[in-house]
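#structure-requests
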Amino acid sequence: MKTHIGDAVLELVEGDITKQDVDAIVNAANSSLLGGGGVDGAIHRAAGPRLLAECRTLGGCATGGAKITHGYNLKARHVIHTVGPVYRDGEHNEPALLASAYRTCLELASQNHCASIAFPAISTGVYGYPTEDAARIAFRTILDYLSAHSEIKLVRYVLYGAAPYAVHQRVLEQMLAE
């Protein structure tokens, strides 16, 4: 699914984020930035040991923040590591922290001359954020950013599996119809 926002394209695809040929991919990392499971582990494995070596120099990352590294063995020239919130009940600043994670990644992409960026569904795996709520926050943040900034031309939202893709597609279609 593709939609145009000004001069940019927001694209939903089902696939593997480590295989994306974009300027930057986003890593849904833990606060240590030293690797983990899920998307984080897959990106570290695909990028190779130099990614971990560079991450060791970054001093971790706060929830809602982001830091950028080289992409090493990935097609993407950069990895933007962000820490999404662990979902408790939606009453502990989780929506604002999740929006901040997306926004900070987009800002880092702009600052580092990345015209294309690929996101996973941040915080929806082991961090337990309800998929539909997280998708709404992600898309609102991305749409608002693309409406106000022209340097990013492609945001690709990469979903691992048909079920998450279907939820995200439905949410995006609803938001575009509002």
